[in-house]
Amino acid sequence: MSKQEFKGSVVLNPVPVVLITSKNKEGKENVFTVAWTGTICTKPPMLSISIRPERLSYEYIKETLEFTVNLPSSHQVRETDFCGVRSGKDTDKIKEMGFTMKKGTHIDVPYIKECPINIECKVKSIIPLGTHDLFLAEVVGSHINSDLLDEKGKIHFEWANLVNYCHGEYFPMSKKPIGQFGFSVAKNSELIEKYKHIKTFNEYKSDDNKTILPKKKKKKKY
């Protein structure tokens, strides 16, 4: 397979689909989508979001230095898309989409009850980059639907039916893992057995290059 230089935008895909809720000092609330977001630190727990200055929530978040990240399920794709293409300057998106807003535990910004996962954040710094400003924020609280936790307290994100965004389209998160951290060097027999069907890249290449010969037809006896 040959390579060619791609001169488009950033091709780091897919990215998580998120709904950001914000609130200004007058109490006005808004919700919008952010494509550029991610975890940036474990201790303290921090994440980042990049926002265009012309977005309404840019003003709200810069004013209060607080926001909430809400992870929607695949059943909320239509609502999510609406919140990304409509502006809060002329549309009450929260009312239009029928979202139930719950008061935050650690910040004054509410979160969306219908979303299975909610993350409360406080902005620590803002870095102007160009088309977007980068907001670095500390995670101060999280809310998770109880049915996403197993009997051992482990969270199963695949049970939440989360969504990925890739080059303008939404894709559901797969419920079936193709591996887990450390499985490639595992010595645990149970883990080895679980993922023994997962091949290396070279093995896949080898399979693709194999010529499948047609089966010889048996001669009919008359």
Blueprint (SSEs and pairs):
Blueprint lengths: L14 E2 L1 E6 L5 E6 L2 E5 L4 E6 L4 H9 L1 E6 L5 H9 L7 H5 L3 E2 L8 E2 L4 E12 L4 E12 L18 E4 L2 E4 L16 H6 L6 H9 L13
Antiparallel strand pairs: 1-11, 2-3, 2-6, 4-5, 5-10, 6-9, 7-8, 9-10, 11-12
Descriptive report:
The chain has 222 residues and is α+β, with helices and mostly antiparallel strands. It has two domains: 158 residues, Roll (Pnp Oxidase, Chain A); 34 residues, no CATH class. The chain is 17% helix and 30% strand. It has five helices and twelve strands. A hairpin with a 4-residue loop joins strand 9 and strand 10. It starts with 14 loop residues before the first strand and ends in a 13-residue tail after the last helix.
Helix coverage percent: 10-25%
What is the alpha-carbon Rg in Å? 23 Å
CATH superfamily of the largest domain: Electron Transport, Fmn-binding Protein, Chain A
Structural class by SSE content: alpha+beta
Mean pLDDT: 91
**SS elements, strand count:** 12
Largest β sheet strand count, sense and barrel closure? 7 strands, antiparallel
Number of alpha- plus pi-helical segments: 5
Low-confidence stretches: none
Which band does the percent of strand residues land in? 25-35%
Q: What is the general shape?
A: globular
CATH architectural group of the largest domain: Roll
Distance between the termini: 50 Å
